[in-house]
Specification:
Elements lengths: L5 E3 L5 E3 L3 E2 L7 H13 L3 E3 L7 H11 L7 E6 L6 H15 L4 E6 L13 H16 L3 E7 L3 H11 L5 E5 L7 H9 L3 E5 L11 H9 L4 H11 L2 E3 L6 H8 L7 H8 L13
Parallel strand pairs: 3-4, 4-5, 5-6, 6-7, 7-8, 8-9, 9-10
Antiparallel strand pairs: 1-2
Helix pairs in contact: 1-2, 1-9, 2-3, 3-4, 4-5, 7-8
The protein binds adenosine-2'-5'-diphosphate (A2P).
Adenosine-2'-5'-diphosphate binds next to helix 9.
Length: 278
Amino acid sequence: MLKDEDFILSNGVKIPKIAFGTWQIPDGDVAYNSTLAAIKMGYRHIDTARAYENEKSIGRAIKDSNVKREDLFITTKLPADCKGYDITIQKFNESLANLGLDYIDLYLIHAPWPWSNVGADCRRENIECWKAMIDLYNKGLIRAIGVSNFRVDDLENLIHATNFKPHANQIRFFVGNTQNEIYNYCQKNNILIMAYSPLATGNLLSDKTVNDIAKKYNTTPAKILLRYCVEKNTLPLPKSTHEERIKSNLEVDFTLKEEDIKLLDQVRNPELDRPLRS
Ligand code: A2P
């Protein structure tokens, strides 16, 4: 079952194959209750970000779950508009305090540019962020470091400047939106792709091909979409605030036949005009 499986990052660190995604889960009771439910149901990987403004509630849920710290894998992210060495260290420490933790499993640069200025050239500043993250990693405060929403040239910028390859790149990835250029680059370079919005924020759940295949496997459209991500060697992070869905998304216990993966490869992206955001 997916919930019991891991990927291995390029530095040897094990990372659970599915994460509980918390983007768009409001802070307070909703974030606390859904994260606590997720951990109780067996999720061992929680994905958050400073920008989601729910780290404190998630931290409380982690504490109250009574699951041993070393059995959990926590991912969080440096805000996209925080560019520079000192601000990276500062924001990292704030995330640690918010989450009530003394180390983070995976810390990511949330985006190569501020969301208010998508596409801006922040190459120099990203190198400073990356150097700070390497220092935190070398001090043992982070077990793995990576990026999010990075394209090939953004990644090469970091690698050429520091000779330190990110362990992961979290991108918007789902059936119909497989971002082939960055996907192929990361696969070739052993950079794990983490698939955010694996259900296309819900927009693929009524797709006919997805539903036909779900019937064939006697399962749900959501599970077909999640299994597709794993078949593509990516780590899905489905978000839900409903307990029965949180549970069901974790219980993916089948593999997809090649012929069905090919059918899914043909599905048109339902969100073609939607801007990138996580
Ligand atoms: P909700 O939070 O109300 O359960 P993504 O992970 O791609 O961002 O998609 C999240 C969206 O999909 C949310 O709107 C969530 O709604 C919905 N969702 C998550 N899991 C399921 C599921 N198993 N069945 C139907 N809808 C789901």
